[in-house]
Design brief:
One of its GO terms (cellular component) is plasma membrane. Keywords: ATP-binding, Kinase, Membrane, Nucleotide-binding, Phosphoprotein, Transferase, Transmembrane, Transmembrane helix, Two-component regulatory system. It comes from Brevibacillus parabrevis. With 257 residues, the protein is α+β, with helices and mostly antiparallel strands. The protein has helices spanning 2-25, 32-62, 72-99, 112-129, 148-164, 211-215, 223-233, and strands at 108-111, 133-138, 143-146, 171-179, 182-189, 237-243, 247-255. The chain has a 5-stranded mixed β-sheet, covered by helices on one side. It has a two-stranded antiparallel sheet with strand order 1-3. Helix 3 (72-99) packs parallel to helix 7 and helix 5 runs antiparallel to helix 7. The longest helix has 31 residues, at 32-62. It is globular. The chain binds adenosine-5'-diphosphate. Adenosine-5'-diphosphate binds at residues 157, 161-162, 165, 189, 191-194, 202, 207-209, 214, 219-224, 248.
Length: 257
Amino acid sequence: VVVIGGAVSVVIAIVAGWFLARRALIPIQVSWEKQQQFIADASHELRTPLTAIMVNLERLFRHPDHTIEQESEKIMIGMQEAKRLSKLVADLLTLARSDSNELQIMSKRIRLDEVVQKCTQVFTQLAIVKEISLETNIEGPLEIAGDEERLHQLLVILLDNALKYTNKGGSIYVSCKKDGNRVAILVKDSGIGISKENIPYLFDRFFRVDKMRSRSTEGTGLGLSIAKWIVDAHHGKIHVSSEEGIGTSFLVTLPVK
Ligand code: ADP
């Protein structure tokens, strides 16, 4: 009985280990239609900055006698669009590699409070420039199993959005604390907010609330889909609550183990 019991325990341990190891990698299945749609949307989005660069280069080429000062606007637009293109390509690569499971989460024991602290420090400087107050409440030490680089990227996406969609004089609040066997990261802003009907689409690739208004702010419409992928790969949850004209909160909860 002891031998059979031992053998059964070993088999259960092996099966559970195999299952957990597979779960740790979570292969996210992407349908053929979704991949086609992704390629079509990506091509469309890539064409916009490329066209702007080409048009401005052609205009510059037509006036070889003009000085740099005279053509500074065209040069500036070209540079801005090149920057946008570069960000778009980087985001597209992240998503394409995550779809093909090429990009995996390097799970190690990390200090989440330190990751949040490091990231908010950078954004404090950027907030000062935009005259936005940034307050933090980070509890520590908070140790979790996760990928430091990806969690840093997640915070950059949420903080970058909070800063982008909050006007001068507004405020941002970031907290990070333990909540039972999970950790909760809250990024709350007093920005322009998001209407109820747009909230279900926020994590869709290329979704931007108001294409015309968003066009004036830098962005690709891919940030939140990357954020969702990072949270899912950590077996966590991301929740958004928002009110137009009042502000937006993103709450991320991650398991400690
Ligand atoms: P983007 O690069 O356009 O910011 P995201 O995927 O990060 O793309 O966000 C998708 C859209 O969700 C944004 O274009 C914006 O309209 C809206 N959004 C995201 N975060 C916020 C926020 N904190 N406040 C208001 N709107 C937001």
